[in-house]
Amino acid sequence: MITIGRAAKFTNIPAKTIRYYEEINLISPAQRSDNGYRYFNQHSIDELNLVKGARDAGFTIEQCKELMALFRDDNRQSSEVKALTDEKISQIKQKISALNNIVQSLEALSDECRGDDSSDCAILNGLIKK
Fold this sequence. Notes:
By secondary structure, the protein is mainly alpha-helical. It has helices spanning 4-11, 15-23, 42-56, 61-72, 78-112, 122-129; strands at 2-3, 31-32, 38-40. The protein is elongated, with a radius of gyration of 23 Å.
């Protein structure tokens, strides 16, 4: 059993964030001592690490709740986890595509801009037309 401060160091998640995750029922409630201090066991650390890994991979809080439910379910099927992950991959690819389109548009505007002392700016004019 470790305190929230040690759990924060082990997982590289701020204590404030750990409290938030507990408050929204993303992780299991910590055990409490008589003085109200939170104490975390290895299972709690595993849950925190799962959330950290999922958040780092781009999963939303709601998606993390789905992953956590599957993590806690001994009867889960890996196909369920795979389906969530494949859906996330598709979402990320869509975002990458949208960002690539933005980059291309900005590059085109930048290429049109003379970048001199003139007040006429192809970038500003181009953004107005968007």
